[in-house]
Design brief:
Elements: E1 10-13, E2 16-19, H1 22-40, E3 45-48, H2 55-69, E4 74-75, H3 83-93, H4 103-106, E5 110-114, H5 118-121, H6 123-134, E6 138-142, E7 155-157, H7 164-177, H8 183-189, E8 190-191, H9 193-200, H10 205-212, H11 216-228, E9 232-236, H12 238-241, H13 246-260, E10 269-272, H14 279-284, E11 291-292, E12 296-297, H15 301-311, H16 323-331, E13 337-341, H17 345-348, H18 352-359, E14 364-369, E15 381-384, H19 388-391, E16 394-397, E17 402-406, H20 419-429, H21 439-449, H22 458-464, E18 467-468, H23 491-494, E19 498-499, E20 518-523, E21 548-550, H24 552-558, E22 565-569, E23 574-581, E24 589-593, E25 622-628
Parallel strand pairs: 3-4, 3-13, 5-6, 5-9, 6-7, 8-19, 9-10, 13-14, 14-15, 20-24, 21-23
Antiparallel strand pairs: 1-2, 1-15, 11-12, 16-17, 17-18, 20-25, 22-23, 22-25
The structure holds ligand MGD (2 copies) and molybdenum atom.
The site of one ligand MGD has 30 residues, from helix 5, helix 12 and strand 20.
């Protein structure tokens, strides 16, 4: 199916959504928030802020949550993808951003793509990877599937799902035993090496081959090539982060960079490739429950005080709920109202049936989107927004921390209005007379409270075609990579050393057994986008709907052929879809996207087991069985 753009506000009456004026819809939306906050306090409110919209929208979204409502319960889809990267990088280096710039993969010697289908999901970044390969870099791909990315690699390490820590540990042990670690860097810039060394000792190449399924020779080659390289880039995405132990996975990769000194120098670094176009910016703007704008910790009293001065409102001295916790709190009746901007959790959350049940328990749900999504169809009030990428002014921040201007080129359709205009109208109805004369005024307010954005005026952003943070002053041009301080000889300039992490292997939560013997992993295709809301409106011969991808051996064993409709079931749900045979898969592995949930709801199958540190769900590992629908005669 395809969606039409929302052109009018909608309100629910007698159980159905009907057209309304802006006045009526805004009044209804504001009244519901007021009612719930009065009855149950500010923490009964939760906001999901849109990672597809601008930095300015996200700044206003979190300010609405903290100032108008008075809670820190604000989050976004960062929770479903790279919250573990932010948590892991922050724990190691004190900052959650990717360390390198895109240009650096062109100027490096080794590129490791770990759990990343960049050829499909990050095609612009992948162009830089291809240029790097063309200039002579060696590329490794670590992925259970021999993806389009892996097909460009010098070596593909096809590991079993959820065995990244054993693989990384074996790489580390091999580097240590071969004497290829960077002793000077370790002594100067890190702590915890001895404990780490001891912890990886059991992971010999033989043991790791047994657990990961990757031949010992391939593990050895990755270890030696990465460690011997002058410069090396380690890039990862959801193959690492959508697991119940995702932050540990991220730390396992960071350990490799600390061991070899491949961080803090031009051409050597750690790059989590972020998901939605502005998910990096959304987090930087404070649309997360634990950080104020500029990634400043809410628990720091001096920081809170600065914001309280700027905003004239006390900020709660505690972290708010993240997306996962918000959904749990809905089930407990603790969160009773939700303002959901540009997210479609009904189809994107793991265990979607559980998510629908929780959202339906809300007293008051307001959805602000550009389409009438399945989530919007559950709302009490639907507010039609402009599409930020072409109908609004502002800025986006990409995975290399580069802030760039976006400019309004089109008017939104019908009565749809800018996200910021809508939020200010709601704020006004809730007693805060907010008025911004355009996106630049919002941006300048942000620059006054976020030191790392201070030197990024719109004028400078236009002149320089984007600037990477940190950018603390009007004349600063920082190096394109982070953590150069780790290489300083002066201990004061070097600052806090980066800790190695001691980690333990923990296999996927959803165990394989006789009833559910196959491992389902889910992900993306080049031609579709997430829950399909924005990409289902076109047909192309290249594009097929949802399929259940199996390797030829498994298809034979199950007696199914390409195109045959089969049933796939997990411990949570069951759906049917046609078989697609893909030799890029290994026996025992099944792959599906989540791009066509109106026809096939893949997330009815996935498990809501989450990483305790980041709250990210294990989208990448469910136990399933695949059955023929009609028995052969
Ligand atoms: N065309 C397109 N582009 C997109 C999107 C889209 O929907 N369509 N979505 C955007 C978003 S929101 C995001 S977050 C990014 C995601 O970008 P990616 O993370 O690159 O995309 P995925 O396909 O979800 O997963 C990456 C790979 O992880 C592998 N994998 C699965 N399990 C494991 C494991 O246990 N270990 C390892 N090492 N690998 C594993 C999968 O086989 C898959 O190839 O893409 C963004 N770009
Ligand atoms: N099985 C499985 N499930 C997954 C994943 C997986 O790998 N496997 N990946 C997870 C990941 S990484 C992500 S990021 C999530 C994505 O989950 P969601 O963010 O819930 O899904 P999207 O389809 O990207 O929805 C984006 C919404 O934003 C709206 N929108 C676009 N532009 C604007 C704008 O300017 N303003 C407003 N107000 N709205 C706008 C769109 O219409 C759409 O409804 O899915 C997660 N779910
Ligand atoms: Mo994502």
């Amino acid at each position: 199916m395809s969606y039409d753009r929302l052109t009018h506000p909608l309100v629910r009456e007698n159980g159905v959504l009907r057209k309304a004026t802006w006045e009526e819809a805004l009044e209804r939306a504001a009244e519901g928030f007021r009612r719930n906050v009065e009855r149950h306090g500010p923490d009964s409110f939760a906001m999901l802020s849109c990672a597809r919209s601008t930095n300015e929208m996200n700044y206003i979204g979190q300010k609405f949550t903290r100032v108008v409502i008075g809670t820190n319960n604000v989050d976004s889809c960062n929770r479903t993808c790279h919250a573990p990267s932010v948590a892991g990088l922050s724990a190691a280096f004190g900052s959650g951003g990717g360390t390198s710039s895109y240009q650096e993969v062109e100027d490096t010697d080794v590129i490791v793509m770990w759990g990343s289908a960049a050829r499909n999901a990050h095609p612009i970044f992948f162009q830089h990877v291809l240029k790097g390969i063309h200039k002579g870099a060696r590329m490794f791909a670590v992925d259970p599937r021999r993806t389009g990315t892996a097909q460009w690699a010098d070596l593909w390490l096809g590991l079993n799902v959820g065995t990244d820590i054993p693989l990384a540990h074996a790489v580390a042990r091999e580097i240590i035993h071969a004497g290829l670690y960077n002793q000077a860097f370790i002594e100067r810039a890190t702590v915890g090496f001895e404990e780490f060394k001891e912890s990886v000792e059991p992971w010999t190449l033989t043991v790791a081959e047994e657990v990961t399924g990757v031949p010992a020779s391939a593990i050895r080659e990755l270890a030696h090539t990465y460690a011997r390289a002058d410069r090396a880039q380690l890039c990862w995405t959801l193959g690492i982060t959508e697991h119940h132990n995702a932050t540990d996975n991220v730390r396992a990769l960071i350990n490799l960079a600390l061991l070899t000194g491949h961080v803090g120098r031009y051409g050597s670094g750690l790059s989590p490739l972020r998901g939605q176009n502005n998910v990096q910016g959304g987090g930087d703007m404070g649309a997360i429950p634990n950080r104020l704008p500029g990634f400043q910790d809410i628990l720091d009293p001096a920081i809170r005080q600065r914001f309280e001065g700027a905003w004239g409102k006390e900020i709660q001295p505690q972290y708010g709920l993240n997306l996962t916790e918000m959904l749990e709190a809905m089930a407990e009746g603790e969160v009773t109202t939700c303002y959901l901007i540009g997210e479609n959790p009904v189809q994107s959350e793991a265990d979607s049936l559980a998510c629908i049940k929780r959202l339906s328990m809300l007293d008051h749900l307001v959805v602000q989107d550009i389409f009438l999504t399945k989530t919007a169809q559950m709302a009490d009030v639907v507010l039609p927004a402009s599409a930020a990428w072409c109908e609004a002014d502002g800025t986006f921040t990409n995975s290399e921390r580069r802030v760039q201007r976006v400019r309004k080129a089109l008017d939104p359709p019908g009565e749809a209005r800018d996200d910021i205009w809508i939020m200010c109208e709601l704020a006004r109805r809730l007693g805060h007379d907010w008025h911004y004369d355009g996106a630049e005024e919002v941006w300048d307010e942000l620059r006054a409270v976020s030191p790392q954005h201070k030197g990024m005026s719109y004028q400078r952003l236009a002149e320089l075609q984007g600037i990477q943070w940190p950018c603390p002053s009007d004349d600063s041009l920082e190096p394109p990579y982070l953590h150069g301080r780790l290489w300083e000889t002066d201990p004061v300039k070097r600052g806090v050393p980066a800790p190695f992490a001691v980690l333990r292997h923990s296999p996927p939560v959803d165990l394989l057994d006789e009833e559910y013997p196959l491992r389902l992993t889910t992900g993306r295709r080049l031609d579709s986008y997430n829950t399909g809301v924005q990409s289902s409106g076109f047909a192309s011969p290249l594009r097929r709907g949802e399929t259940i991808e199996l390797c030829p051996e498994d298809a034979d064993r199950l007696g199914v052929v390409a195109g045959e409709e089969v049933r796939i079931s997990s411990r949570r749900g069951s759906v049917t879809a046609p078989v697609y045979i893909d030799p890029a898969l290994r026996p025992g592995l099944v792959f599906m996207t989540f791009h066509f949930p109106d026809e096939v709801d893949t997330n009815a199958l996935t498990i809501e087991a989450t990483d305790p540190i980041s709250g990210t769900a294990e989208f990448k590992a469910a136990a399933v069985r695949v059955e023929k629908l009609v028995k052969a005669r």
